[in-house]
Amino acid sequence: MRIITSITIPAKAADPATTETAPLQPRARRGMSPIMRRILTINILALGILVAGLLYLGQYRQNLIDSEIKNLISQAEMFAAALGEGAVGGVTPMRQELVRGTANRIVIRMVESTNTRARLFHVTGHLVADSRKLALAGREVEVMVLPPINQSPGILRTAFNIYDRFISRLPGKIHLKKYEEFPIQHAQHYPEVPIAFGGEIASAVRNLDQDHLMLSVAVPVQRYKQVLGALMVTKSSHSIDEALYDVRVGILEIFLVSLTLTILLSIYLAGTIARPIHRLASAADRIRQSLNRREQLPQLKNRDDEIGDLAI
Q: Which residue in 4, 104, 135, 178 has a CA-CA distance of 20 to 30 Å to 11?
């Protein structure tokens, strides 16, 4: 009699060290290396931030404004001296008055070639003469300076204006008062004029519109040390804005050249990093998937950098 005994032997646990893993598929070749994208992004972003800061030109614009105001003060002082000598009359030296007709003719002639506007106020605050108003047949005709015909702002100029508006809304920026033109003008409408009545020189900067400023100075008109009125000379910031535009265009031209060089150098730098690594990765995939262990790695051992260390 035979007794057959069956014995169940448990399966041996798999050794993680000897377990074969499924071969990994090599990554598909990308159109542009991520390393190249990162290098390009960082370099272009750094250059863009630098150019954005240069385009601001806040201090340069303020220097131009200060210089323009100094020029206006010099002009106004000469105009006021001429008015004090030629547009004043009276019975005695102690009772001098501004002669309206003479003052108006002098004011108009003075600003013909200066691209400025001059207004003469009496010490009582009333407007005596305005370079934009001609007295004809007992009536005043206002002369308006028209912009050039068919002058379009252009895409680049519009972009600069939008940039300036954005900067002006940042915290900490000084908001200027808006320049207003009143039908019946009085010295009280312009704070710098009453200061000139006191014998001092005053200036002001106001917003003419969204993209331009109005600069004004007021100087006293005197005769024998007696203040008879105040001359206010105003000028828009169009010449300053044109100077800023020219500087910004020059900065953009340099930026385009720098951007081209930055892109070319970034591509070269990324190529010296990404291509060798991709070659090493491809060779490693071939060695891992091939039965022939005699596959050779790319000859990168002579590189004196981390990629050379990786090849070794």
A: 4
- Computed on alpha carbons and rounded to an integer, the radius of gyration of the chain in Å comes to 39
Longest alpha-carbon distance in the chain: 163
- C-alpha span between 103 and 84 (Å, rounded): 9
Residue 271: how many CB atoms within 10 A of its CB?
A: 14
In whole angstroms, give the CA distance from residue 148 to residue 128.
30
User: How many helices and strands, by DSSP H and E, does the chain display?
Assistant: 7, 9
**β partners of residue 126:** 186
Predicted pLDDT of residue 9: 45
The answer to whether the CB of 105 falls within 8 A of the CB of 222 is: no
Q: What is the dihedral of CA 232, 233, 237, 238, to 10 degrees?
A: 140
d(CA 51, CA 257): 12
> Which of 89, 100, 99, 98 has the alpha carbon at shortest distance from 133?
100
3-class SS at 53? helix
d(CA 248, CA 25) in angstroms, rounded, equals 52
Instruction: Report DSSP state, residue 310.
Output: H
pLDDT digits (tens, 9 = 90+) for 169-207: 777 667 788 999 888 899 999 999 999 999 999 999 999
Q: Which two tokens stand for residue 210?
A: 């969204």
Q: Which tokens go with 205?
A: 């900067």
Q: What is the pLDDT of residues 130-179, one digit of tens each?
A: 988 754 434 444 555 555 544 556 788 888 888 878 777 777 667 788 99
The tokens 């001098």 sit on which residue? 96
Mean pLDDT across the chain: 78
How long, in residues, is the chain? 312
- Is the pTM above the cut of 0.85? no
